[in-house]
Amino acid sequence: MTSPRRSRLMAAVCLAAAAALAAGCSKEEGGGTASSDTSQGAQVVQSPSADSSGSGCTLEAYGATRIDLKNAVVGFSQSEKEANPFRIAETQSIKDEAAKLGVKKLLTTNAQSQLSKQISDIKDMLAQGAQLLIVAPLNSDGLEPALQAAAAKHVPVITVDRKLNATACKDYVAFLGSDFVEQGKRAADAMIQVTGGKGKVAILLGSSGNNVTTDRTKGFVDQLKAKAPGLEIVAQQTGEFARDKGQQVMEQLIQSKPDITAVYAENDEMGLGAVTALKGAGKKPGKDVKVISIDGTRNAVQALADGQYNGVIESNPRFGPLAFETAQKFFAGESIPENVIISDRAYDASNAKDSLSGAY
């Protein structure tokens, strides 16, 4: 007869073996072992290592001083309130990576969608001794006073998720983010596929004044013209990247353009707002009106899995590892490309359910 102690030992061994087997079977979407949801959604820089447009920027060329991040004060300037899943995930990623690396002090600010506040936020962090700035710009223009203040103190600026209309290796070191024109093209391709290339499309535009909106619009519009002239764009209105605004605009469009058969939302929040509006009007989103958007939030991918959505192009907000890796290379004397472009996944009806763990 097996003793109770031995039985407990055998049970523990079996549980450990089962856990190990489960871990070995857990795979990342693109292959390889996934240790967590975070690793499944990690950013991947486009092959070979970056988009090397521009001559690259070095510590010497920028005029900055070599520092060890573990003994440094780092500032992160967030542009918009953290009600949007993209912003929540982005800020958390920066905080997590700073903690992982043992950064001496991380300063974080939020501009609450006010350009003047982002300028003052950056100046305040410089006054607090920030030696590196990671900035998610609110707009592509208008941050000049903040950039000049950083340059006066020779503090490097790394920008994420939105590009600046400024000079690389003078006003900032590098831009880290997606190819937004390509995102628009991929959204158009997804729309063509789910509509058969025919119908009437409404575009919910992002906020004005930044390259994300401009580029996502250009990519989508140009691709439809080239590949699907049967898909007519009948409306373009801004939803300001907000769910409530997207819903409001969609409600108005349902009244003024009742024959709309498809919606392209330039972020998921507006797309989800459009879904709510369509339901309220007695329409079936995903069926009566096709919906394609960009971001890759868990709510949008879930809507896709539930059949209320038709496609999502990812825009990955987890910039922490890439931002600090870029900073470490820069301070080590390596040349940093002007644009470090990441790869983005695409979600559709075939992979949405299995891909939820990689969404944010």
C-alpha-based Rg, rounded: 23 Å
Measured as a percent range, the helix fraction is: 40-55%
Total number of helical segments? Answer: 13
* Unreliable residue stretches: 1-39, 47-54
The description of the largest β-sheet is: 7 strands, mixed
Oligomer: single chain
Secondary-structure element string: HHEHEHEHEHEEHEHEHEHEHEHEEH
Average of the residue pLDDT scores: 89
Q: What is the overall shape?
A: elongated
Number of strands: 13
Percentage beta strand? 15-25%
* CA distance, first residue to last residue: 51 Å
By secondary-structure content and strand pairing, the structural class works out as alpha/beta
Numbering strands along the chain, what is their spatial order in the largest sheet?
1-12-6-5-4-2-3
Topology:
Blueprint: H1 4-25, H2 37-40, E1 44-45, H3 59-62, E2 73-78, H4 85-101, E3 105-110, H5 115-127, E4 132-135, H6 144-152, E5 157-160, E6 174-177, H7 180-195, E7 199-205, H8 211-227, E8 231-238, H9 243-256, E9 262-265, H10 268-280, E10 290-295, H11 298-305, E11 311-314, H12 320-331, E12 339-343, E13 346-347, H13 352-355
Parallel strand pairs: 2-3, 2-4, 4-5, 5-6, 6-12, 7-8, 7-9, 9-10, 10-11
Antiparallel strand pairs: 1-12, 11-13
